[in-house]
Amino acid sequence: MRSAFRNVMAASVAGLALAMAAPASAEDVKIGFLGGFTGPIESLTPPIFNGVKLAVDQVNAQGGILDGKLNLVQGDSTCADTTAASGAADRMVNSENVTALVGPLCSGATIAAANTAAIPGGVLLISPAATSPALTTLDDNDLVFRTAPSDAYQGQMLAKTLRADGADNIAITYVNNDYGKGFADALAAAFAEQGGSVAANVAHEDGKADYRAEIGQLAGSGAGMLVVLAYADGSGQTIIRQAIEGGDFSKFAGGDGMISATLVPAVGEAPLQGMIATRPGSSQTDGTAIFNTLAEDAGVPPTGTFVPQGYDAAFLIALAIEKNGNGGREGLSQALRDVASAPGEVILPGEWEKAKKLLAEGADINYEGASGSHEFDDNGDVPGVIVKTVVEGAVFKEVGQVE
Fold it and tell me: Name one GO biological process term (predicted).
């Protein structure tokens, strides 16, 4: 693995020199990033964007894409506002004329962006964070992919985690959108199948100042733990704070949307100690280890929520464009499947110059990424990895993969 890392770093240095010597080209390629820079995941979005930007910077430092430079433009898709997501996607597709999109991040925003702009425009879209099961059945002309696993799987893993920790009677509240409902349905079914009891399963709307009515209904169920499937910078934080203030619950759990550096400082350390949450993570491979070092050197948090998945989405798009041989949109989804899947010579994070040379020779490649393999199924889904985290002190600390 050390040898592989040295090769990656050597390629980065050599490629940087080449990029600095090369003149600007008229055949630059533009891709877009859509993320929730405002709204209920605003603290999660910047690290993901930085992971995407790291991939783009590596491409440009190691010879560029096709005969030019890979340019990255960004837009605010918010998270809960699907109208804003549609507008941002329309600008990317029809005004910026991007070749492909990374994001949006939230499921409802992703579905809205895909249906209103990406699919009609024939634009490949890879979300690193949209986890709703609804994406699996989207009529997308093979244009919508994701590098994070579906909540149909995360719901099973969260249920398994809670049962292993001794939870036997839970109440669930979920944000009333594609993400929340799909996750809640999966968790409730899996928890019951594993011998637990779901005393209440209550939807709530994001953006309210007062959730005491919903909390009262949940507390009245007699459940010993409240599972919040929402967003740490939105309804999830408010619900937990008000549940603590009212003395309604003392044990909490959540999904990936709740894992943020802002949650514990905002609510308080003492009442959240031991809170369990799951999120998509990375398999432990040579690619993961190399990415961790490259990301740390660039000041990017390598294990941040959806950061490796964001990096992989951008690197895969770049590989697909290079494979496709032009900056156009047609044929890009098939090129993506080609570069992401075996057989082929393995390409690890940061190995752009190696991949570029192999593709120029007509060789097959197989990208093994920062968050694991991306053998996309017919629906553009990947199996992925789910990890358990627990609040210790002021932060969520990773415990390990849920097996």
Answer: amino acid transport
Domain boundaries 2-150+283-373, corresponding CATH code = 3.40.50.2300
How buried is 16 (Cβ within 10 angstroms: 0-12 exposed, 13-18 middle, 19+ buried)?
Answer: middle
Domains 2-150+283-373 and 152-277+387-401 share a fold: yes
Q: What is the pLDDT of residues 272-330, one digit of tens each?
A: 999 999 999 988 788 999 999 999 999 999 999 999 999 999 999 999 999 999 999 99
CB-based contacts of 65, cutoff 8 Å, min separation 6: 29, 59, 318, 321, 322
d(CA 212, CA 14): 59
DSSP class of residue 36 equals: -
> Domain ranges in the chain?
2-150+283-373, 152-277+387-401
Q: Token pair 């989207």 is at which residue?
A: 138
Cα–Cα dist 364/376, whole Å? 16
